[in-house]
Amino acid sequence: MNKRLLLVLGTAFLLSCNFLFPQKGTSIRETPIAAQTQPADVETVTSTEFTIVRLRPEDGDLQTMLAQEAQKAIALGQMPVAEFDATWCPPCQAIDAAIKSKNELMLNAYSGTYIIKLDVDEWGWDNGKVRDFSFTGIPVYFKLDAEGHQTGEVVDGNAWGENIPENMAPVMNKFFHGE
């Protein structure tokens, strides 16, 4: 009985120490990724390294919004990229989780980008098309020019194997940076 009580108290003590005195990460990049609020349904995540914006159909015409976001990207010195995703998509979930957990590989891959997220369910994925974008699977990334038009460079989730940062980040890094 005393051993169990000692074990329970010892575990509680160790857990409370980590809670009260959390360990600081040893990440090379200490840039906080802060959520900012924009218009009601526009989700934006910005760091000094990259930007992620979610656009919704009720906010306006897609091409007009892509042009506006591309201009913002250029002003920040970042590359505009349209990403089609969905909440139910396992690779999309893995990418979001890696970014939220500040995975160094993914943060490096996303460096210098301005990701414009578009949910296929919201935008009406019909016969492999959403407006002027054609694709067969998600997530899919389209590089955009300064006017928000497709450049012809595309990569999708079929480009890597298992949905882990060690597989995803090199593919994205090569796509975004040519490395």
Protein architecture, described:
- There is one protein chain.
- This protein is 39% helix and 24% strand.
- With 179 residues, it is α+β, with helices and mostly antiparallel strands.
- It has a single domain (32-177), classed as 3-Layer(aba) Sandwich (Glutaredoxin).
- A hairpin with a 2-residue loop joins strand 6 (129-130) and strand 7 (133-134).
- The protein is globular and about 35 Å long.
Give structural attributes.
9 strands, 179 residues, alpha+beta, Glutaredoxin, globular, two-stranded antiparallel sheet, seven-stranded mixed sheet
Note the topology.
Layout (H helix, E strand, L loop, with lengths): L1 H19 L13 E4 L5 E4 L4 E5 L6 H15 L2 E7 L4 H11 L3 H7 L2 E7 H4 L5 E2 L2 E2 L5 E5 L5 E7 L8 H13 L2
Parallel strand pairs: 3-5, 4-5
Antiparallel strand pairs: 1-2, 2-3, 4-8, 6-7, 8-9
Helix pairs in contact: 4-6
CATH architecture: 3-Layer(aba) Sandwich
| CATH class descriptor name | Alpha Beta
Average pLDDT confidence is 81
Low-confidence stretches: 5-9, 11-42
**N- to C-terminal separation?**
60 Å
User: How would you sum up the major sheet?
Assistant: 7 strands, mixed
Q: Can you tell me the overall shape?
A: globular
Number of helices: 6
Order of helices and strands: HEEEHEHHEHEEEEH
Number of domains: 1
Output the radius of gyration. 20 Å
Helix content: 25-40%
